[in-house]
Structures are given as C-alpha cells and as structure tokens.
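Note on ligand handling. Small-molecule inputs were canonicalized before submission; formal charges were left as drawn, and no protonation-state enumeration was performed. Where a ligand contained multiple stereocentres, the stereochemistry in the source SMILES was retained. For NAP, this procedure yielded the string shown in the input block below.
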Amino acid sequence: MTRVLVIGAAGNTGRPIAEGLTAEGLTVRTATRGTRPPVSAAEHVRFDWADPSTHGAALEGVDRMYVLAPALVEDPSALMLPVLERAFAGGVRRVVLLSASAVAEGGPGLGQVHHLLRTQAPEWCVLQPSWFMQNFTDPRHHWAAGLQRDGTLTTATGDGRVGFVDAADIAAVGVRALADDVSHDTAHVITGPQALSYDDVAAHLSRVWNRPIRHVHASPEEARRHLRDGGMPDTYARLLTMLDGLIRDGAEDRVTDTVLRVTGRAPRDFGSFVRAHASVWR
Ligand SMILES: NC(=O)c1ccc[n+]([C@@H]2O[C@H](COP(=O)([O-])OP(=O)(O)OC[C@H]3O[C@@H](n4cnc5c(N)ncnc54)[C@H](OP(=O)(O)O)[C@@H]3O)[C@@H](O)[C@H]2O)c1
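Structure output:
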C-alpha cells in the first residue's frame, strides 16, 4: 500500500488533497499542528516544521508527501530542507511541493526547496499556482478581513491582472501528481480560466454580495503599512508588497491549460466561485 503524508491537511489545498487521495484508495496520513484529524478515514499525526520532535513519527513508513510552507515565515527553506533530506534518507520517493507562480526555481525561500526536489528527489512535482480565489473568502486571510470590515481591498497591484485559481483546482492537480503511477517530474504553473484585475474582482464581489466593494489603489509603502496595521509581521508585509509590484508589472497576467490538461476538467471561473461561496458573507 502506498502511504502519503499530507502536510497542512486542514488547509485550502491539503484537505481536498487528503480527501482526493483517500477516494483513490491510497493510505493517507494527515499532518497538522493540531491533534484533531481533519479528514476521516485517514491516519493523523501532529506535525510542526519548527518542532523536530514531531518529524520522526510523521515520516515513518511514508512513500510520498505533499508539502507546503510553514505560515508567515520569510525563508521557509531553512525549516523545510532538513526535513526533506531526512525524508529521502528514510525512503520517501515522491514529494509534491506547493510553491507559487511568483517563485522561480533557485530563488529564495521555496525556490530553494523546488531546486532540491528537481535535482535530488527520486520523483517530484512542484505546483506553482497563481493567487487563490479563497483569499477573498477565507476569514484568516487579510483581504477577507478587509472585505468583512469595510468592504475594501487594499493593494499596490494597480491595474495588474492575476489568473486567480480555486484551491480545489490546485488540489485536483496535486491529487494526480501524488496518485499517478508515473511521477510528473515537472513544475505545473496553475491558473484559473481568466486573468482579472483587483478592480474586476471588486466588481464581481459587489454584484454577488450585493454590497459595494472597492479596490483601494495604494502605493507600495501604503500597502505595506496597511498589512502591518492589520497585525502582519513587517518582513512578511514587505514580501507581499513586493509581490504586489510583480502583479502591477504584469508577471501574473496569464492563464495556463494545466488544470484541464492534468485533470481532464476545466478550472472554475471567478464568478462561479464567488456565487458558490456567497453564503460566507451573509
Ligand atoms: N494564498 C495564495 O494566494 C497563494 C498563492 C500561491 C501559493 N500559495 C501558497 O499556499 C500556501 C498557503 O496556502 P493557504 O493560504 O491556502 O493556507 P492553508 O493551506 O489553508 O493553511 C496553511 C496550512 O499550513 C499549515 N502550517 C502552517 N504553518 C505550519 C507549521 N509551522 N508546521 C506545519 N504546518 C503548518 C497549517 O496547518 P495547521 O492546520 O497546523 O494550522 C495550514 O493547514 C503557502 O505555502 C503559499 O506559499 C498561496
């Protein structure tokens, strides 16, 4: 039996990946920082990238892994690389990493993890999604918090467009990368079907939620201060503001056919996503 360790299994991609792999008949071990199993019919372990005492039991008897970064850490590679090296030494063959379209192989942080996988993992895949549609509905996300508070979205993205993608579609690609007999051994850039500006997003949200939503065009310094005032550590606020600049300059203005090609079904569009999640705001 192939056993897959799913890190972040209570999250936007980890949970549907754990459920999808269970449905495919694989043995799934969910890993979160909590003790409560997020998915029934799976083994569960407590796992924290920052707590080495949790790593041994999590990796025991594992063949494949889904990994995503520890939250709000500027350079997650410092915590992730030693765990992955230990995993390979212990017999893990395949690792599927959730990175981001904005992070190039070999760049800082997850770019280093991407490089390790491509060069040293027996089998590997890197998911490089664009920005998640869930950022507007997940109450933990700073945009969702701003929308809830006063109906504003504050960014330094200007008129730049983003191929927003539903985390469920990212997870569907991840399930194939983990479950397929033949390893994908590639990086998948994953987007939704349209590239939208934040003005477009605000217009969609206003229509579906039936309340005025406004995109505040901030300067990089204003956007960084806004994130900091919302409680985000300054180093992470600086990173997100830098990513806003990439969007403003057009780096995310693209769509790919990855979801259709890998899963056989088209990715969800933003209007349909917002309608399906309208209850979040009622
Ligand atoms: N949001 C975007 O637009 C976007 C775009 C591209 C890429 N990404 C990537 O997606 C990831 C986050 O996705 P998300 O925002 O949707 O969050 P999420 O997956 O819903 O939640 C983050 C998950 O990470 C786990 N986690 C956090 N810190 C951990 C730690 N120290 N040790 C073990 N597990 C830890 C959490 O597990 P617990 O259950 O233990 O809390 C949680 O399940 C990031 O790696 C980010 O680079 C996000």
